[in-house]
Amino acid sequence: MHILLTGAAGFLGSHLADRLLADGHSVLGVDNLSTGSLRNLEHLRNEARFRLEEHDICKPFDYGPVDFVYNFASPASPVNYHQLGLETLEVGSSGTRNALELARRYGAGFLHASTSECYGDPQVHPQDEGYWGNVNPVGPRSVYDEAKRFSEALVTAYHRYHRLDTRLVRIFNTYGPRLGRKDGRVISNLLTQALRGEPMTVYGDGSQTRSFCYVSDEIDGIVRLAGSCEHTPVNIGNPTEWTILDCAETIRRVTGSRSLILFKPLPEDDPLQRKPDIAKARRLLGWEPRITLEEGLRLSLDYFRSLLDEPVASR
Ligand code: UDP
Questions:
Q1: Which residues are near ligand 1 (CB < 6 Å)?
Q2: pLDDT score of 314 more than 70
Q3: Which residues contact 287 (CB under 8 A, 6 or more apart)?
């Protein structure tokens, strides 16, 4: 297939490009490099089946016929979408609409990268796809959460009104090599701090929870969903839930670090708990994650060691 992938220079986008190329497809990546990095695509420089167009999808685009569109363009870490709030709203609305129009023009399939942020600070635990969420529409996270909720509505409307062949994946916290150096995520911050022997910044008392999926597991679930006929949202994430403090301890053990924990204030509207119910993905796709947090951290060590000179972002 000839595949168009928006956000190809991002963390997930670049891993998805690798997987699609390995599966024999040709991939046209589109990225404006606002949060993505050419470094993530460096190894594809001589790959004849890959091309990158530097373009902001909020402006209409058309590079010719495609069979399938993966829509992964968006700032995604809290640090990034706080800095790029209006751009985040724009790419979830106009940008996603431009990508949908392109798929419609060429009769292509469409998979949109949505998020567990659709559940906000959830009052149902674990979160299944039937839960409508608990989102503050005007809080600091709203630029991301509401953009993604709007794009889910938009994608669904293209399916409903135009019969577009769409998929929606709700992605939970994912980690691994190529996580942005300055995106301030918990795994990238704590791993880098532990490797440097610096204090590890835990926000709040560290009792809030997240469920971390290693990137190869995440990509496998996404590709399986693309190959299915499911148009309603599907959670793809690792259901093993960690408190942030336990996650910090695990990172300290895996790195052999003696870093101390430095408690910092909990950011506003930081969700207290997150854990996907993946019964739907298991049933429909035969998918479940295989890599434990400890294994995934070990697989990530070389990459984070290579970044040690670069600063960590904090909120
Ligand atoms: N966090 C932390 N220390 C850091 C970065 C993040 O304790 O240096 C916490 C953050 O407050 C949140 C969790 O880790 O509770 C996950 O944050 P991240 O930015 O990775 O993603 P989120 O799931 O909040 O979108």
A1: 77-78, 173, 184-186, 189, 201-203, 208, 210, 244, 267, 270
A2: no
A3: 220, 221, 224, 236, 278, 281
Question: Distance between CA 305 and CA 121 in Å, rounded?
Answer: 33
Report the interhelical angle of 186-196 vs 244-255 (nearest 10°): 40
226/107 Cα distance (integer angstroms): 15
Residue 233 scores a pLDDT above 90:
yes
Q: Which atom of ligand 1 sits closest to the CA of residue 117? A: 25
Spacing, Cα 95 to ligand 1 middle (Å): 27
> Is 175 marked active-site?
no
- For the chain, give every domain's residue range: 2-172+214-236, 175-211+240-274+291-306
Is residue 50 over pLDDT 80?
A: yes
Tell which one of 80, 127, 141, 210 to mutate to probe ligand 1, the residue whose CB is within 8 A of the most ligand atoms: 210
Fold of 175-211+240-274+291-306: UDP-galactose 4-epimerase; domain 1 (3.90.25)
Report the topology of domain 2-172+214-236: Rossmann fold (3.40.50)
Please state the atom number of ligand 1 nearest to the C-alpha of residue 189: 8
Does the pTM of the predicted model rise above 0.70? yes
2-172+214-236 and 175-211+240-274+291-306: identical CATH topology: no
Burial code (b: 16+ CB inside 10 Å, e: under 16) for 43-69 equals ebeeeeebebeebbbbeebeeeebebb
Determine the Cα–Cα distance for residues 22 and 236; give it in Å rounded to an integer. 21
